[in-house]
Amino acid sequence: MGSPHPAPANAPANAPANAPVNAPATVSARTPSAAADPGCRVLGLRERKKQRTRDALVDAAHTLFLNRGYGDTTIDEIAATVDVSQRTFFRYFANKEEVALAVMADAEDFFIARLRERPAEENPLQAMRAAITEAWRTLGDGRRTGAGSVTAALELFELIETTPTLLAAHLRRATEQEGVVARVLADREGLDPATDLRPRLLAAVFGAVVRISHLSWSTHTDGNDTGPDGMIELIERHFDQLGPALAGSWRS
Amino acid sequence: MGSPHPAPANAPANAPANAPVNAPATVSARTPSAAADPGCRVLGLRERKKQRTRDALVDAAHTLFLNRGYGDTTIDEIAATVDVSQRTFFRYFANKEEVALAVMADAEDFFIARLRERPAEENPLQAMRAAITEAWRTLGDGRRTGAGSVTAALELFELIETTPTLLAAHLRRATEQEGVVARVLADREGLDPATDLRPRLLAAVFGAVVRISHLSWSTHTDGNDTGPDGMIELIERHFDQLGPALAGSWRS
DNA sequence: TTGCCGAATGTCAGTGGCTGACATAATCTT
DNA sequence: AAGATTATGTCAGCCACTGACATTCGGCAA
């Protein structure tokens, strides 16, 4: 499992042999400074502390959700694990769902960033396929924890898919991201997203394909590769089925 | 701030000149009996009463949500309007979102029913386009209330789209329906939905197209036709853009 | 009609998510 | 080292939602 850090000043030593209080979450950050500030390499103590408690909250919530289940975990429990007040929890996360979807949200932002970097000569669909493949590949080997994080992702998917409230929140987030994607695509091609239907349409279709892929991945753990490569292959397969699915009758 | 009416026994007379307390909601029903029972033409008093309170609750909630806003309307207010206890409300609807999405849910069921009726010789995409067109057309003229209900639908879309909680719940419902649609398609074509990716994929893409269409419809009230015909045309246009969007570069 | 059964409703108490207001303690600035 | 910011804790409160139990009402038959 996680790395057994000696748990610095702030964070309480909970989680017997489970996850360290200060686990470096996926892409972490999620603060405007982390992405926007240009030269500030060493953040102040204050910022670092905030970052730590945030990560600790995400981590504690994650383990609790997977053990006790989402519905049977209270905010008080999460807060108590990290040794902060309930009120503080709500200063970091707007609601219970947000802490559960934090990692997922970071991943989505990561994808958007990759999409923005794609060369202009690729067409929209190519750019998106390339961006998501790249994102998954990076997530696969850029992992400090080595393995484990991928299985963690799988568990998270399953948790989301089986928890109505979480699924709803996740879908909402996803469609929001579709809006962002649509705008990026429109910029790339230099057209007005208000007039042209294609950017939003393609973004939505892309979102649908990815979602179905995730679903396939999480439902059948058996047989196929469950690593990032397996996911990439699954997405590719679904994309390749897009044409046939839209074509005429399926009867062979 | 409540209603200054003397509040008669069962059904209170709210909605000054808006909607009658016992509005026959779209397809209404939502009880297994209404769709399953074959010969029971006249329902017992008990059933009719339940139906009435249910409709009244939906109606009261609808008007309150549109006036005060979703977040600023309490369940107690809704229940008080119909003159039932809060507990009774929760015996009809699992949660606050459900009462807001009740009409929408009925419409979705209606679409599924139409899809099931499509002749077998149509290919999947044709069947779905035909089914949704038919559904909207029926909804358009099969209306006792005459006009008004279409504008009501528009207001409802807007409410959903602008209320995070509602949007989340709606999206969850919609994806659930995609699962149903996928199964229907798989049955039509006689293939295994667990193996073949196409049914689920096409259902998801179809859902995406419809969602984008709804969004377009609700956002630009101006210019185009806002009636059911306008919606049908919008959906058609989006479908026609599907191919071009998936094709290569968009630069003209 | 009467009387019984089951279903619908009301009442009550309690849990948990979430928020505003204010006081306190920690960091940052000069 | 003092003052300005900012994070946190505490407290009180609203509201969505639930289980348990009492009551009333509609359906049905003797």
What would your notes on this structure say?
2 copies of one chain form a homodimer. The first copy, chain A, is mainly α and 252 residues long. Helices cover 65% and strands 0% of the residues of chain A. Chain A has 2 domains: 32-92, Orthogonal Bundle (Arc Repressor Mutant, subunit A); 97-246, Tetracycline Repressor, domain 2, CATH 1.10.357. Chain A contains 10 helices and no strands. In chain A, helix 2 packs across helix 5 (96-117) and helix 5 (96-117) packs parallel to helix 8 (164-189). The relative contact order of chain A is 0.09. The A-B interface holds A 123-125, 164, 167-169, 171-172, 175, 189-191, 196-198, 200-202, 204-205, 207-209, 211-212, 215-216, 237-238, 241-246, 248-251 and B 123-125, 164, 167-169, 171-172, 175, 189-191, 196-198, 200-202, 204-205, 207-209, 211-212, 215-216, 237-238, 241-246, 248-251. The structure holds a DNA duplex (30 and 30 nucleotides).
When the domains of chain A are counted, the total is 2
Can you identify the CATH class of the largest domain in chain A?
A: Mainly Alpha
**How many separate helices of chain A?**
10
What portion of residues of chain A belong to β-strands?
under 5%
Q: What is the overall pLDDT average of chain A?
A: 82
Q: Largest interface by residue count?
A: A-B, 40 and 40 residues
Give the ordered list of helices and strands of chain A: HHHHHHHHHH
Query: Distance N terminus to C terminus of chain A?
Result: 48 Å
- CATH topology of the largest domain in chain A, by name, is Tetracycline Repressor, domain 2
Q: CATH architecture of the largest domain in chain A, please?
A: Orthogonal Bundle
Which radius of gyration of chain A do the C-alpha atoms yield? 20 Å
Which runs of chain A of at least 5 residues are low in confidence (pLDDT < 50)? 1-29, 31-40
Task: Give the overall form of chain A.
Answer: globular
The tally of beta strands of chain A, per DSSP, is: 0
User: What is the percent of helical residues of chain A?
Assistant: 55-70%
Reported for the largest beta sheet of chain A, the result is: none
- Could you name the CATH homologous superfamily of the largest domain in chain A? Tetracycline Repressor, domain 2
